[in-house]
Structures are given as C-alpha cells and as structure tokens.
Amino acid sequence: MGKEMEVRENFSKTKTMELPRNVVIGHDALLEVEKVCDNLKLGKTALLVVDETTKKVAGDAVASLLSDAGYTVEDFIIKEADKETIEEVKTVSVENGTSFLLGVGGGRPIDVAKCASTNAGLPFLSVPTAASHDGIVSSRASIKSDNGRESIVAQSPMAVIMDTYVISQSPHKLLAAGCGDIISNSTAVKDWLLARNLKNEYYSSYAASLAEMTAHLLLERADSIKPKLEESAWFVAKALVSSGVAMSIAGTSRPASGSEHLFSHALDNISKPPALHGEQCGVGTIMMMYLHGGDWGRIRNGLLAVGAPTSARGMDLPEDDIIEALVTAHKVNKDRYTILGDEGLTRDAAENLARTTRVI
C-alpha cells in the first residue's frame, strides 16, 4: 500500500482540452443552426460577424433562421481581421448585451468572432462558407498586424456548422488551399518529433498520430477532390475538423504547424499581397519534406491532384519572395524549433532547395 501511495503521489500530470461541443457537417447543415443554439442554451441575442460576400452567401440565411426562431440577431460587417476590428466587435457585443457570436465566412469573420468573443468572455460558433484552412475549428487566429499577419491564441468555437453544399459552391482554389493546410501536417509532425528529440519539447503521440493520419488520408484521396463536388467538400471538412481536434488534444498548434507554416508566415510579411495561407503551406511542405529526407514528390503530386499550386508561379509570387521567406522563416517564431534549426538556411541553400523541388 505504501508503494502504491508513493507512485500516486509522484504522478503529477494534468491535461486540459478545449473541443467544440457540437460539430455538424453535411448537406443543408445551416438548417441546424437553431437546434444547435437551443441545445447549447446560449441565450437569445446573437451577433453575426460577416463580410460583404459571406453575408450574402450564408449570413442572411443564418440570421433569418435564428430570427424566425425568436432570436434577436444583429450583424457586424467587417473588412479586415485586425486588432481594431476585433476591439470594435467586442465593444458592440458588450454594449448590446450579446449572448453569443457567430463567425460566418472564411478566415476573416471567423477569426474576428473568435478573438472578439474571447476578449468579451462570450461563446462563439464557427459557420464556415469555405474549407480553406483549419482555423475554422482551431483555437488560433490569423490577425493582420503592422508586420504582416500574426498568429494568436483565442478560444475554440463552442460549435461548428459546416454546410457542404455552401462549401462546395465556393471557389475551388479555397478548397484546394484547405487541402494544402491539411497536407502540411506531414512536415509539422516531423518538426514536432525533431523538437522533442533535440530540445526535449513536450510531444503528444496521440495528437501527432491523428494529424499525420489526416494528412495521409487526404493524400490517398487527392484524386477524388474535384470542383463543385459536395462529396469533396464533405471529405475536406471532416479532415479540417480532425486537424483542429489534434491541436486541441495537444494543447498547441504543433501537430498542424511547423517549418512549412513558418515559411508561410514569412511570405505573409514579404509578399504584397501573399497567396492563400493553405497554398503557401502546401508549397512549404514540399520543400520542408525534402529537408526531412521524406517523399516530397508525393506531397507535390498530391497538391497537383487537388488543384493546389506547387510553385512560385502557381501562387503568382516572385521567385525572390520564396528565397527571402526561406532565409527568414526561422526568425518568425524563435520558440518553435523545426528542421530549419536556430540559424536557418543560407541564401544559396534556399535557392538550391527551391530549384531542386521545382518551386522556382
């Protein structure tokens, strides 16, 4: 008994995981918004965060469905996901006695709703109109700053409602970008394992396995991802949820964000304008997989199959931006150890890498 007590006293691990309570994915999933809100008992006053496009695509429909069910709904139309907009949305939420927020759109409305609700101490629901990145499910937000874009921690959505018909009707390049973000788990997990081995960083084998499996399954199904096909939207939407869950299990974005994301963030700061986040991460994954000694050709072929770019030309970016991003990527987040190391790549090494993998 004494030995058992000693073992129990020496065990001090604890873990907190923040996961969406409801995830609804499928055809006409928007029609479930009232049921989801009722079940969560969020209150009856909602603030809808949209942009001009997503208001027409799904925002008006969500507002109508909730209004008909007795909810008081106001909308806030945003132009950019920046700190000023977040503060404005937070202020309106508090002044109006808002019970909860809904982010309806792609990245910007959801990121703004995510951050504003966090700052206001209110729950929020994610209602994506495109499956372009895993931020629609995760607790991280990409916010515009003076130096480009900044990735910050916020709360996870209390619920996610993904209407596969709406998503399938969005431009295919958005869905392809989402595939790129999922495929990038392949190198993110390798970077995380490297950090564990070389820097003794915390590592979750469960989270890593889920993230890696999600990328592997998408690469296996890459040929089936087609424009305007609802089955494709269904598959990518589920994969994005899996990536978000992996990050929640880990308590960090590590399972889905490594050197390829550092490269993408560096491009955000360099290119005017940059390409889509998922596009940049996909191209970064090709090069980082080469550095890891993995099958970078499989990554490239998978991106081509889903219709995502694999080169600077495909992203409509100057080749010099690619080189500069590779050279500076290791400086983006000094706390995140990756295959790029502490010193990063020399300019010659960066150019050789980009040419070898046919990115330039």
Structure overview:
The protein has 360 residues and is α/β, with parallel strands linked by helices. It folds into 2 domains: 22-168, Rossmann fold; 172-356, Dehydroquinate synthase-like, alpha domain. The protein contains 15 helices and 8 strands. The strands form 2 sheets. It has a 6-stranded parallel β-sheet with strand order 1-8-5-4-2-3, sandwiched between helices. The chain has a two-stranded antiparallel sheet with strand order 6-7. Helix 8 (185-199) packs antiparallel against helix 9 and helix 14 (319-328) packs across helix 15 (347-356). The model has no long low-confidence stretch (mean pLDDT 93).
Would you state the CATH class of the largest domain? Mainly Alpha
Domains (count):
2
Strand content: 5-15%
How much is the radius of gyration in Å? 21 Å
Q: Which regions have little confidence, pLDDT < 50, spanning 5+ residues? A: none
Number of helices, where a helix is a run of at least 4 consecutive DSSP H or I residues: 15
Mean pLDDT figure: 93
Name some characteristics of this structure.
Dehydroquinate synthase-like, alpha domain; 8 strands; 15 helices; 360 residues; Rossmann fold; alpha/beta; 6-stranded parallel beta sheet; globular
What's the SSE blueprint?
Blueprint: H1 2-10, E1 22-26, H2 33-40, E2 45-50, H3 52-68, E3 72-77, H4 83-95, E4 100-105, H5 107-120, E5 124-128, E6 140-145, E7 148-153, E8 159-163, H6 164-168, H7 172-183, H8 185-199, H9 205-220, H10 230-250, H11 259-270, H12 277-291, H13 296-306, H14 319-328, H15 347-356
Parallel strand pairs: 1-8, 2-3, 2-4, 4-5, 5-8
Antiparallel strand pairs: 6-7
Helix pairs in contact: 4-5, 7-10, 7-12, 7-13, 8-9, 9-10, 11-12, 11-14, 12-13, 14-15
